[in-house]
Design goal:
Chain A has about 90 residues and is mainly α. Chain A has 4 helices and no strands.
């Protein structure tokens, strides 16, 4: 039983958590600095978002598909820089 | 129409995206380094997860409440370090 006058909070929440990876991706692309980013976080998060995407395709839910396709792309770019830097500067 | 033999992928996806903030929080607490973390990301993400939590309480969905309470705590710790460091080393 949903009150649609309150449904907007779910949409705002989804937009915020999805789009939040945009400023991080922009910062990482600009500075190429990934020193304080956790590899474990981006490995788990990228894998998790990919699974959300597969799940969305499976249950045919357009909102889950679009949100996770966008987040997957952003998280994968950040993870890519983190892996590249780890190979370049191993320690 | 859901096939419950495939539902596990949603649970694994949710666990991965929720728990992924744990290694980042541990790394940030240990090193106290937040240089390459985006303030915009953590501000948006923490606000978004808080709204997910409110939404979960509103629709009375236990999974959404638990997952977002955990993530909110972890993201808030990281955001707290980012803000603290910005005040300590403004530039």
């Amino acid at each position: 039983m949903m009150d649609f006058s309150f449904e907007w909070i779910g949409y705002v929440a989804a937009s915020l958590t999805t789009l939040s990876f945009l400023p991080q991706a922009i910062k990482t692309i600009k500075t190429r600095d990934t020193e304080s980013l956790s590899f474990g976080m981006y490995a788990m998060f990228t894998a998790g978002v990919l699974m959300w995407l597969i799940y969305g395709l499976y249950i045919d839910n357009y909102a889950i598909i679009v949100a996770n396709a966008v987040t997957f792309l952003l998280a994968a770019v950040i993870l890519g820089f983190k892996i590249y830097n780890s190979f370049k500067n191993p320690n």
